[in-house]
Amino acid sequence: MENVTKKRKPFGFYVCSLGFSFERCAFYTVKYMLAVWIATTVGKGGLGFDDVKGASMSATFVAMTYITPIIGGYIADYWLSPRLCVASGMILMGIGYLFTWKADSITYVWIMIILVSIGTGLFKGNLSGVNGLLFNDEKELDEAFSVQYSFVNIGSFIGTTFLVLLIPKFGFNFVFLICALLLFIDAIWFIGNSRALGDAGKNRLKLTSVSLNRRKKQRRVRQSR
Fold first, then answer.
1. Is residue 3 part of a domain?
2. Span 87-102, average pLDDT
3. CATH number at residue 43
4. Does the pLDDT value for residue 208 go beyond 80?
5. Smallest Cα–Cα separation from 115: which of 81, 146, 139, 89?
6. Residue 189 in domain
7. SS percent in the chain: helix, strand, coil, step 5
8. Which of 40, 66, 119, 168 has CB 3.0 to 4.6 Å from 93, enough for a Cys bridge?
């Protein structure tokens, strides 16, 4: 009977995966409370608009954060390195949530939506891309993404189950501040541990793809000799 030794994942994998936990915790918290906050009366810490306005703004927020990663992927392909995109995205999202911390009008909400959407676009797909570049074996890569998704679920669970419980005691704005701080901590974590990523995500993805294909061809040539 063969002893199968499970290969340990590189530390860079946990740098990326935990990055998702922080970001998803903040995102799902805001997604959960945005419509409620907009529709809550001013006296109770809300903006005092009706339910229709709250639902509309919340839907726009979610829709834009799902569309922009396509643009973020294009930017990482041709203009900026994925690693730079991820760090910039984290910081932009943090600044966006800061606007809702001090919000007293719908204008601040729009600024938050724009900044968080752009930040999500730069962050979301590119962090997965960086994480994927840490693995050469296809089976390891599939397993790694399954584990990464668990980190995503942990972050969203903490946000929607525990973080929102702070609203009755501390108010909406305080929770928005926590969401902003989570993204700034995320950026510090990612940038501070960038050495653990090696060369993954240092170059634009198109250049990385060309380089990987060249290495595969060289490997095939050596094997055929």
1. no
2. 96
3. 1.20.1250.20
4. no
5. 89
6. yes
7. 80, 0, 20
8. 119
Return the residue matching tokens 């229709």: 52
User: For every residue of 179-216, which 3-state class applies, written as one string?
Assistant: HHHHHHHHHHHHHHCHHHHCCCCCCCHHHHHHHHHHHH
Residue from 61, 62, 84, 60 nearest 72 by CA: 84
Q: How many domains does the chain have?
A: 1
Is residue 39 pLDDT above 80, yes or no?
A: yes
If pLDDT is split at 50, 70 and 90, which confidence band does 217 have?
A: very low
What are the φ and ψ backbone dihedral angles of 209, each rounded to 5 degrees? Answer: -65, -45
Domain of residue 38 covers 11-220
On whether residue 6 sits in a domain, the answer given is no
Q: Is 145 within the bounds of a domain?
A: yes
Residue 211 corresponds to which tokens in the numbers above?
Answer: 């380089």
% of the chain beyond a pLDDT of 70: 88
